[in-house]
TrEMBL record:
This is Glycosyltransferase. Residues 273-417 form the Glycosyl transferase family domain. It comes from Chryseobacterium endalhagicum.
Amino acid sequence: MKKILVLSTGDVNGAYEAMYKVAHIFKNMGHEVVMCVKSKTKTDDFIKPYIHIQHSPATKISSLTEKILRRIKSKFTNLQSEAAAKKKLTTDSKYSFLSKDEIAENINVDSLLKSVGFVPDYIFTGMTIGFLNSTDLLNIHKATQSKIYNITVDMNHFTGGCHFSWGCEGYMNSCDHCPAIPDESQKHVAKDNLEKKYQNSKHASFQIIAGSGLTLEQAKKSRIYRDQKVIYNINSLIDTQLLNDKNKSIAKSIFSLEEDNFYILTGAQNMDDPRKGFKYLIEALELLDQQLPEELKKKINLLVVSHSINKEFDRVTFKKQKIDYIKDYRLLSLLYQATDVFVNSSIEDSGPMMVSEALACGTPVVGFDTGILTNMVINDYNGYKAAMKDTQQLAEGIKKILELNKNEYAVFSKNAVQQVQEFSSYEYAKEIFTKILEIK
Protein backbone atom coordinates (compact mmCIF):
# COMPACT_ATOMS: atom_id res chain seq x y z
CA MET A 1 0.00 0.00 0.00
CA LYS A 2 1.32 3.40 -1.03
CA LYS A 3 0.69 6.83 0.47
CA ILE A 4 -0.69 8.91 -2.37
CA LEU A 5 -1.34 12.65 -2.40
CA VAL A 6 -3.55 14.20 -5.09
CA LEU A 7 -3.21 17.98 -5.44
CA SER A 8 -5.87 20.15 -7.04
CA THR A 9 -7.20 23.66 -6.52
CA GLY A 10 -10.75 22.34 -6.17
CA ASP A 11 -12.78 19.13 -6.24
CA VAL A 12 -15.77 19.84 -8.53
CA ASN A 13 -16.24 20.53 -12.25
CA GLY A 14 -13.99 19.80 -15.20
CA ALA A 15 -10.30 19.51 -14.39
CA TYR A 16 -10.94 19.33 -10.65
CA GLU A 17 -13.47 16.53 -11.09
CA ALA A 18 -10.86 14.61 -13.08
CA MET A 19 -8.47 14.69 -10.12
CA TYR A 20 -11.29 13.64 -7.79
CA LYS A 21 -11.69 10.59 -10.01
CA VAL A 22 -7.94 9.93 -9.85
CA ALA A 23 -8.14 9.94 -6.05
CA HIS A 24 -11.13 7.58 -6.11
CA ILE A 25 -9.34 5.13 -8.38
CA PHE A 26 -6.31 4.98 -6.07
CA LYS A 27 -8.59 4.49 -3.07
CA ASN A 28 -10.33 1.62 -4.85
CA MET A 29 -6.91 0.12 -5.49
CA GLY A 30 -6.38 -0.06 -1.73
CA HIS A 31 -3.91 2.79 -1.24
CA GLU A 32 -3.92 5.45 1.46
CA VAL A 33 -5.10 8.55 -0.38
CA VAL A 34 -5.60 12.21 0.44
CA MET A 35 -6.80 14.79 -2.03
CA CYS A 36 -5.54 18.15 -0.77
CA VAL A 37 -7.31 21.19 -2.20
CA LYS A 38 -7.38 24.92 -1.73
CA SER A 39 -11.18 24.94 -1.77
CA LYS A 40 -13.14 21.92 -0.52
CA THR A 41 -16.72 21.48 -1.73
CA LYS A 42 -17.39 17.73 -1.57
CA THR A 43 -17.96 16.01 1.76
CA ASP A 44 -15.62 13.04 1.23
CA ASP A 45 -13.33 12.43 4.22
CA PHE A 46 -10.28 11.84 2.00
CA ILE A 47 -10.52 15.41 0.68
CA LYS A 48 -8.66 17.79 2.98
CA PRO A 49 -8.29 21.57 2.59
CA TYR A 50 -4.84 23.10 2.81
CA ILE A 51 -4.55 24.99 6.10
CA HIS A 52 -1.67 27.39 6.52
CA ILE A 53 0.07 27.11 9.89
CA GLN A 54 0.38 30.35 11.83
CA HIS A 55 4.03 30.42 12.83
CA SER A 56 5.50 31.64 16.10
CA PRO A 57 7.10 35.15 16.16
CA ALA A 58 10.62 33.71 15.85
CA THR A 59 9.59 31.61 12.87
CA LYS A 60 7.81 34.59 11.34
CA ILE A 61 11.03 36.59 11.50
CA SER A 62 12.91 33.74 9.82
CA SER A 63 10.21 33.44 7.17
CA LEU A 64 10.27 37.18 6.60
CA THR A 65 14.04 37.07 6.14
CA GLU A 66 13.68 34.26 3.60
CA LYS A 67 10.98 36.20 1.79
CA ILE A 68 13.19 39.30 1.58
CA LEU A 69 16.09 37.21 0.25
CA ARG A 70 13.83 35.68 -2.39
CA ARG A 71 12.68 39.11 -3.48
CA ILE A 72 16.26 40.34 -3.75
CA LYS A 73 17.21 37.28 -5.76
CA SER A 74 14.20 37.71 -8.00
CA LYS A 75 15.09 41.37 -8.56
CA PHE A 76 18.61 40.56 -9.66
CA THR A 77 17.52 37.76 -11.97
CA ASN A 78 14.87 39.91 -13.61
CA LEU A 79 16.52 41.75 -16.50
CA GLN A 80 13.50 43.93 -17.13
CA SER A 81 13.06 47.45 -15.81
CA GLU A 82 11.48 48.06 -12.41
CA ALA A 83 8.55 49.78 -14.07
CA ALA A 84 7.86 46.77 -16.27
CA ALA A 85 8.11 44.44 -13.28
CA LYS A 86 5.49 46.41 -11.36
CA LYS A 87 3.14 46.64 -14.31
CA LYS A 88 0.20 44.24 -14.13
CA LEU A 89 0.53 41.42 -16.63
CA THR A 90 -1.91 41.79 -19.51
CA THR A 91 -2.80 38.70 -21.53
CA ASP A 92 -5.10 37.62 -24.34
CA SER A 93 -7.93 35.79 -22.52
CA LYS A 94 -8.34 33.05 -25.14
CA TYR A 95 -5.01 31.50 -24.09
CA SER A 96 -6.09 31.24 -20.42
CA PHE A 97 -2.64 32.44 -19.36
CA LEU A 98 -3.14 31.76 -15.65
CA SER A 99 0.25 30.45 -14.56
CA LYS A 100 1.83 33.88 -14.15
CA ASP A 101 4.61 33.27 -11.63
CA GLU A 102 6.56 30.02 -11.35
CA ILE A 103 9.22 31.56 -9.09
CA ALA A 104 6.95 32.52 -6.18
CA GLU A 105 6.40 30.13 -3.27
CA ASN A 106 2.70 29.90 -2.48
CA ILE A 107 2.45 27.30 0.26
CA ASN A 108 4.35 26.19 3.32
CA VAL A 109 5.44 22.56 2.99
CA ASP A 110 5.10 21.86 6.72
CA SER A 111 1.56 23.25 6.58
CA LEU A 112 0.76 21.05 3.61
CA LEU A 113 2.07 17.88 5.25
CA LYS A 114 0.20 18.67 8.45
CA SER A 115 -2.98 19.22 6.43
CA VAL A 116 -2.46 15.90 4.64
CA GLY A 117 -1.47 13.87 7.68
CA PHE A 118 1.31 11.79 6.11
CA VAL A 119 4.46 12.00 4.02
CA PRO A 120 3.43 10.88 0.50
CA ASP A 121 5.25 8.32 -1.60
CA TYR A 122 3.61 9.63 -4.77
CA ILE A 123 2.03 12.93 -5.74
CA PHE A 124 -0.38 13.40 -8.64
CA THR A 125 -1.34 16.92 -9.69
CA GLY A 126 -3.87 18.36 -12.12
CA MET A 127 -5.08 21.96 -12.18
CA THR A 128 -3.44 23.79 -9.27
CA ILE A 129 -3.76 27.42 -10.42
CA GLY A 130 -4.25 29.79 -7.50
CA PHE A 131 -3.00 27.10 -5.13
CA LEU A 132 0.58 26.08 -5.93
CA ASN A 133 3.09 25.99 -8.80
CA SER A 134 6.11 23.98 -9.98
CA THR A 135 8.40 25.69 -7.43
CA ASP A 136 6.06 24.58 -4.64
CA LEU A 137 6.15 21.04 -6.07
CA LEU A 138 9.94 21.12 -6.06
CA ASN A 139 9.90 22.20 -2.41
CA ILE A 140 7.51 19.36 -1.55
CA HIS A 141 9.79 16.91 -3.35
CA LYS A 142 12.84 18.14 -1.43
CA ALA A 143 11.01 17.58 1.87
CA THR A 144 9.44 14.22 1.03
CA GLN A 145 11.44 12.66 -1.84
CA SER A 146 8.07 11.73 -3.32
CA LYS A 147 7.66 10.89 -6.99
CA ILE A 148 5.64 13.56 -8.76
CA TYR A 149 3.33 12.99 -11.73
CA ASN A 150 1.57 15.86 -13.46
CA ILE A 151 -1.64 15.02 -15.33
CA THR A 152 -2.48 17.07 -18.43
CA VAL A 153 -5.99 18.32 -17.80
CA ASP A 154 -4.77 20.96 -20.28
CA MET A 155 -1.34 22.16 -21.54
CA ASN A 156 -0.24 24.22 -18.55
CA HIS A 157 2.23 21.69 -17.08
CA PHE A 158 4.56 22.22 -20.03
CA THR A 159 3.94 25.78 -21.23
CA GLY A 160 5.15 29.20 -20.12
CA GLY A 161 1.76 29.97 -18.60
CA CYS A 162 -1.02 29.32 -21.09
CA HIS A 163 -3.46 26.45 -20.76
CA PHE A 164 -4.27 26.44 -24.48
CA SER A 165 -1.69 27.34 -27.12
CA TRP A 166 -3.92 28.01 -30.17
CA GLY A 167 -1.23 26.57 -32.41
CA CYS A 168 1.71 28.38 -30.81
CA GLU A 169 4.72 26.08 -30.55
CA GLY A 170 6.72 28.15 -28.07
CA TYR A 171 6.36 25.43 -25.42
CA MET A 172 8.60 23.24 -27.56
CA ASN A 173 11.55 25.59 -27.10
CA SER A 174 11.58 28.78 -25.04
CA CYS A 175 8.25 30.72 -25.15
CA ASP A 176 10.25 33.86 -25.97
CA HIS A 177 7.69 35.28 -28.43
CA CYS A 178 4.50 34.57 -26.48
CA PRO A 179 1.37 35.59 -28.46
CA ALA A 180 -0.69 35.48 -25.25
CA ILE A 181 1.18 38.54 -23.94
CA PRO A 182 0.68 41.59 -26.21
CA ASP A 183 3.09 43.92 -24.38
CA GLU A 184 6.64 43.36 -25.63
CA SER A 185 8.08 44.47 -22.28
CA GLN A 186 6.19 41.66 -20.54
CA LYS A 187 6.81 38.78 -22.93
CA HIS A 188 9.75 37.66 -20.80
CA VAL A 189 7.24 36.34 -18.24
CA ALA A 190 6.35 33.34 -20.41
CA LYS A 191 10.01 32.63 -21.16
CA ASP A 192 10.97 32.91 -17.46
CA ASN A 193 8.07 30.68 -16.44
CA LEU A 194 8.95 27.95 -18.92
CA GLU A 195 12.60 28.04 -17.88
CA LYS A 196 11.64 27.77 -14.22
CA LYS A 197 9.25 24.90 -14.91
CA TYR A 198 11.98 23.16 -16.88
CA GLN A 199 14.57 23.54 -14.10
CA ASN A 200 12.12 22.49 -11.39
CA SER A 201 11.11 19.47 -13.44
CA LYS A 202 14.71 18.38 -13.91
CA HIS A 203 15.60 18.84 -10.22
CA ALA A 204 12.59 16.84 -9.00
CA SER A 205 12.29 14.44 -11.97
CA PHE A 206 8.67 15.35 -12.68
CA GLN A 207 6.84 12.94 -14.97
CA ILE A 208 3.82 13.70 -17.15
CA ILE A 209 0.64 11.67 -17.72
CA ALA A 210 -1.53 12.63 -20.69
CA GLY A 211 -5.25 13.13 -20.32
CA SER A 212 -6.06 12.96 -24.04
CA GLY A 213 -4.59 12.00 -27.39
CA LEU A 214 -3.88 15.63 -28.20
CA THR A 215 -2.03 16.44 -24.95
CA LEU A 216 -0.07 13.21 -25.37
CA GLU A 217 1.27 14.44 -28.70
CA GLN A 218 1.90 17.91 -27.30
CA ALA A 219 3.76 16.56 -24.26
CA LYS A 220 5.97 14.44 -26.51
CA LYS A 221 7.02 17.61 -28.34
CA SER A 222 7.38 19.83 -25.26
CA ARG A 223 10.76 21.03 -24.06
CA ILE A 224 10.06 19.77 -20.55
CA TYR A 225 8.82 16.23 -21.24
CA ARG A 226 10.01 15.20 -24.70
CA ASP A 227 12.82 13.09 -23.20
CA GLN A 228 10.45 11.10 -20.99
CA LYS A 229 10.72 7.50 -22.23
CA VAL A 230 7.07 6.50 -21.72
CA ILE A 231 4.12 8.88 -21.47
CA TYR A 232 0.92 7.11 -20.48
CA ASN A 233 -2.46 8.41 -21.62
CA ILE A 234 -5.55 7.95 -19.43
CA ASN A 235 -8.02 9.48 -21.96
CA SER A 236 -10.38 11.17 -19.51
CA LEU A 237 -11.59 8.91 -16.70
CA ILE A 238 -14.99 7.31 -17.11
CA ASP A 239 -16.86 5.45 -14.38
CA THR A 240 -18.67 2.90 -16.52
CA GLN A 241 -20.81 1.88 -13.56
CA LEU A 242 -22.53 5.26 -13.94
CA LEU A 243 -22.00 6.02 -17.62
CA ASN A 244 -22.98 3.08 -19.83
CA ASP A 245 -25.48 1.94 -22.46
CA LYS A 246 -27.60 -0.36 -20.28
CA ASN A 247 -30.76 1.73 -20.72
CA LYS A 248 -30.26 2.90 -24.30
CA SER A 249 -33.29 0.97 -25.57
CA ILE A 250 -35.66 2.84 -23.23
CA ALA A 251 -33.81 6.15 -22.74
CA LYS A 252 -35.84 8.07 -25.33
CA SER A 253 -39.10 7.18 -23.62
CA ILE A 254 -37.73 8.32 -20.25
CA PHE A 255 -37.26 11.81 -21.72
CA SER A 256 -40.47 11.59 -23.80
CA LEU A 257 -38.47 11.80 -27.02
CA GLU A 258 -39.86 10.50 -30.31
CA GLU A 259 -38.43 7.11 -31.28
CA ASP A 260 -38.34 7.98 -34.99
CA ASN A 261 -36.67 11.37 -34.48
CA PHE A 262 -32.94 12.07 -34.66
CA TYR A 263 -31.49 13.87 -31.64
CA ILE A 264 -28.21 15.78 -31.79
CA LEU A 265 -26.67 16.52 -28.40
CA THR A 266 -24.08 19.21 -27.78
CA GLY A 267 -23.04 21.34 -24.85
CA ALA A 268 -20.54 23.15 -22.66
CA GLN A 269 -20.56 25.17 -19.48
CA ASN A 270 -19.87 28.36 -21.42
CA MET A 271 -21.10 28.45 -25.00
CA ASP A 272 -19.55 31.88 -25.60
CA ASP A 273 -16.06 30.48 -25.07
CA PRO A 274 -14.32 30.67 -28.49
CA ARG A 275 -12.48 27.42 -27.72
CA LYS A 276 -15.78 25.54 -27.95
CA GLY A 277 -16.30 26.57 -31.57
CA PHE A 278 -20.08 26.73 -31.53
CA LYS A 279 -20.14 29.07 -34.50
CA TYR A 280 -18.75 26.19 -36.58
CA LEU A 281 -21.50 23.88 -35.35
CA ILE A 282 -24.10 26.46 -36.38
CA GLU A 283 -22.52 26.71 -39.84
CA ALA A 284 -22.49 22.89 -40.13
CA LEU A 285 -26.17 22.71 -39.19
CA GLU A 286 -26.98 25.37 -41.80
CA LEU A 287 -25.18 23.27 -44.42
CA LEU A 288 -27.09 20.21 -43.24
CA ASP A 289 -30.34 22.14 -43.58
CA GLN A 290 -29.50 22.86 -47.23
CA GLN A 291 -28.58 19.24 -48.02
CA LEU A 292 -31.41 17.27 -46.43
CA PRO A 293 -34.91 16.67 -47.79
CA GLU A 294 -37.81 18.21 -45.87
CA GLU A 295 -39.08 14.92 -44.42
CA LEU A 296 -35.69 14.28 -42.76
CA LYS A 297 -35.23 17.85 -41.54
CA LYS A 298 -38.49 17.63 -39.64
CA LYS A 299 -37.11 14.74 -37.58
CA ILE A 300 -33.92 16.47 -36.46
CA ASN A 301 -33.77 17.91 -32.96
CA LEU A 302 -30.87 19.81 -31.38
CA LEU A 303 -30.47 19.42 -27.61
CA VAL A 304 -28.08 21.88 -25.97
CA VAL A 305 -26.77 21.33 -22.44
CA SER A 306 -25.44 24.58 -21.03
CA HIS A 307 -25.87 27.23 -18.36
CA SER A 308 -27.04 29.62 -21.09
CA ILE A 309 -27.73 29.53 -24.81
CA ASN A 310 -25.65 31.54 -27.24
CA LYS A 311 -27.90 33.97 -29.16
CA GLU A 312 -26.36 32.71 -32.39
CA PHE A 313 -28.37 29.50 -31.94
CA ASP A 314 -31.43 31.45 -33.10
CA ARG A 315 -30.04 30.82 -36.58
CA VAL A 316 -30.58 27.07 -36.20
CA THR A 317 -33.67 26.08 -38.19
CA PHE A 318 -34.08 22.59 -36.74
CA LYS A 319 -36.16 21.99 -33.64
CA LYS A 320 -34.04 22.85 -30.63
CA GLN A 321 -34.22 22.66 -26.87
CA LYS A 322 -32.04 23.96 -24.06
CA ILE A 323 -31.33 21.64 -21.16
CA ASP A 324 -29.95 23.03 -17.91
CA TYR A 325 -26.44 21.88 -17.06
CA ILE A 326 -26.68 18.41 -15.49
CA LYS A 327 -24.61 17.52 -12.44
CA ASP A 328 -26.25 14.15 -11.66
CA TYR A 329 -24.28 11.53 -13.62
CA ARG A 330 -27.19 9.06 -13.61
CA LEU A 331 -29.44 11.58 -15.34
CA LEU A 332 -26.63 12.65 -17.66
CA SER A 333 -26.04 9.03 -18.62
CA LEU A 334 -29.68 8.63 -19.58
CA LEU A 335 -29.56 11.80 -21.69
CA TYR A 336 -26.51 10.57 -23.59
CA GLN A 337 -28.27 7.25 -24.19
CA ALA A 338 -31.45 8.99 -25.37
CA THR A 339 -29.64 10.94 -28.09
CA ASP A 340 -28.38 9.65 -31.42
CA VAL A 341 -25.14 11.58 -31.81
CA PHE A 342 -22.97 13.85 -29.69
CA VAL A 343 -21.35 16.70 -31.62
CA ASN A 344 -18.23 18.34 -30.21
CA SER A 345 -17.31 21.50 -32.09
CA SER A 346 -14.29 22.44 -29.93
CA ILE A 347 -11.37 23.89 -31.87
CA GLU A 348 -8.98 24.27 -28.91
CA ASP A 349 -9.56 21.72 -26.20
CA SER A 350 -7.67 19.13 -24.19
CA GLY A 351 -10.90 17.16 -23.75
CA PRO A 352 -13.73 17.60 -23.32
CA MET A 353 -14.80 14.78 -21.04
CA MET A 354 -18.27 14.83 -22.65
CA VAL A 355 -16.79 13.03 -25.66
CA SER A 356 -15.74 9.97 -23.66
CA GLU A 357 -18.93 10.17 -21.60
CA ALA A 358 -21.08 10.04 -24.74
CA LEU A 359 -19.09 7.13 -26.16
CA ALA A 360 -19.44 5.24 -22.87
CA CYS A 361 -23.20 5.54 -23.23
CA GLY A 362 -23.14 4.06 -26.73
CA THR A 363 -23.62 7.38 -28.51
CA PRO A 364 -21.46 7.97 -31.60
CA VAL A 365 -19.45 11.21 -31.65
CA VAL A 366 -18.78 13.67 -34.45
CA GLY A 367 -16.35 16.55 -34.03
CA PHE A 368 -13.15 18.25 -35.07
CA ASP A 369 -9.89 16.30 -34.83
CA THR A 370 -8.61 17.67 -31.55
CA GLY A 371 -8.56 16.91 -27.83
CA ILE A 372 -9.96 13.57 -26.80
CA LEU A 373 -11.40 12.94 -30.29
CA THR A 374 -7.88 12.57 -31.65
CA ASN A 375 -7.58 8.97 -30.54
CA MET A 376 -10.97 8.05 -29.04
CA VAL A 377 -13.11 8.64 -32.14
CA ILE A 378 -12.37 6.47 -35.18
CA ASN A 379 -13.96 7.15 -38.56
CA ASP A 380 -16.53 4.58 -39.70
CA TYR A 381 -16.16 2.81 -36.32
CA ASN A 382 -17.73 4.89 -33.55
CA GLY A 383 -18.13 8.32 -35.16
CA TYR A 384 -16.40 10.77 -37.46
CA LYS A 385 -13.58 13.30 -37.16
CA ALA A 386 -13.61 16.43 -39.28
CA ALA A 387 -10.57 18.50 -40.19
CA MET A 388 -10.22 21.53 -37.94
CA LYS A 389 -12.87 24.20 -38.66
CA ASP A 390 -14.09 22.30 -41.75
CA THR A 391 -17.83 22.78 -41.32
CA GLN A 392 -18.63 20.82 -44.48
CA GLN A 393 -16.91 17.73 -43.07
CA LEU A 394 -18.63 18.29 -39.72
CA ALA A 395 -22.00 18.36 -41.48
CA GLU A 396 -21.10 15.24 -43.47
CA GLY A 397 -20.19 13.40 -40.26
CA ILE A 398 -23.57 14.18 -38.71
CA LYS A 399 -25.31 13.18 -41.95
CA LYS A 400 -23.48 9.84 -42.04
CA ILE A 401 -24.72 8.97 -38.54
CA LEU A 402 -28.22 10.10 -39.52
CA GLU A 403 -28.19 7.79 -42.55
CA LEU A 404 -27.11 4.64 -40.67
CA ASN A 405 -29.75 1.94 -40.58
CA LYS A 406 -30.71 0.37 -37.25
CA ASN A 407 -28.18 -2.47 -37.46
CA GLU A 408 -25.35 -0.24 -38.64
CA TYR A 409 -26.07 2.20 -35.82
CA ALA A 410 -26.04 -0.64 -33.28
CA VAL A 411 -22.51 -1.56 -34.41
CA PHE A 412 -21.31 2.05 -34.04
CA SER A 413 -22.92 2.17 -30.61
CA LYS A 414 -21.26 -1.06 -29.49
CA ASN A 415 -17.89 0.15 -30.78
CA ALA A 416 -18.26 3.42 -28.87
CA VAL A 417 -18.72 1.53 -25.60
CA GLN A 418 -15.83 -0.80 -26.42
CA GLN A 419 -13.45 2.11 -27.08
CA VAL A 420 -14.13 3.56 -23.63
CA GLN A 421 -13.84 0.21 -21.87
CA GLU A 422 -10.45 -0.38 -23.48
CA PHE A 423 -8.91 3.10 -23.25
CA SER A 424 -10.85 5.38 -20.89
CA SER A 425 -12.45 3.33 -18.12
CA TYR A 426 -11.48 3.17 -14.45
CA GLU A 427 -10.25 -0.37 -15.12
CA TYR A 428 -7.93 0.89 -17.85
CA ALA A 429 -6.68 3.68 -15.55
CA LYS A 430 -5.99 1.13 -12.79
CA GLU A 431 -3.74 -0.77 -15.19
CA ILE A 432 -1.84 2.42 -16.03
CA PHE A 433 -1.49 3.48 -12.39
CA THR A 434 -0.36 -0.01 -11.38
CA LYS A 435 2.45 0.19 -13.94
CA ILE A 436 3.46 3.60 -12.61
CA LEU A 437 3.56 2.46 -8.98
CA GLU A 438 5.72 -0.51 -9.95
CA ILE A 439 8.42 1.71 -11.47
CA LYS A 440 11.52 1.66 -9.27
